[in-house]
Amino acid sequence: MENQASSKSIILNYGLYLGLITILTGLVKYATGNLYVTEFYSGILGVLIVIVFVILGIKNFKATNKGLIGFGEAVKIGVGLTLIGTILIIAYYFLLSTVIEPDFMANTMEAQKVMFADSFGMTEGQIEEATKNSEDNFYLSLFGGILVWNLFLGGITSLITAAVVKKTEEDSY
Predict the structure, then answer these.
(1) Dihedral, CA atoms, 45, 50, 51, 55, nearest 10 degrees?
(2) Which of 23, 93, 115, 120 is least crowded, fewest Cβ atoms below 10 Å from its Cβ?
(3) How confident is the model at residue 172 (pLDDT cuts 50, 70, 90)?
């Protein structure tokens, strides 16, 4: 029971940190006028934030649990804190797209059209067809994409970290 309470607080705390740091990076992009600019380093930073907080959460639990952590417990902590952080991130994007920046969808679609033309050399007809499909499912794609991507990344990171750091009482003998 003591381990459960400890893991719950670590999941909650590190999940909050993950969400808040990610939101902070989004607010910086918004404040600097780069909200609709897709940069390579921005995506890498998002990936690194998830990886770092999953590893830190698992290692913190192990440290507070006398150096012991099971594989399943480590995965549960990593996926759990990723889920908490992702819920916060989705809430931020919901507020951003409905309250803070009501034209978020239209501006995102326009930025996407420019990217399609510049990066892929698509014709105007191809761009219209592609963006029409995107507009119809914009919020489902946005929120679903954030959820699936973050849980995938957090899950993979959790599995790898769990395999590396797992140590049970049986392993000590």
Answers:
(1) 140
(2) 120
(3) low
For residue 9, tell me if it sits in a domain.
Answer: yes
Number of domains in the chain: 1
How is residue 61 written in tokens?
A: 């639990």
pLDDT tens for residues 46-55? 999 999 999 9
Domain with 153, as residue range(s), is 2-167
Q: Which residue has 């326009």 as its token pair?
A: 110
pLDDT digit string, tens, across residues 124-167: 888 888 777 777 788 999 999 999 999 999 999 999 999 999 98
Q: How far is CA 9 from CA 2, 14, 25, in A?
A: 11, 8, 24
- In the chain, the largest separation of any two C-alpha atoms, in whole Å, equals 68
- Integer Cα distance of 77 and 39 in angstroms: 30
Residue 110 lies in a domain: yes
Any idea what the Cα angle at residue 101 is, between residues 96 and 102, rounded to 5°? Answer: 105
Residue 79 lies in a domain: yes
Phi-psi region of 100 (alpha: psi -120 to 50; beta: other; left: phi over 0): alpha
Residue type present at position 16: L
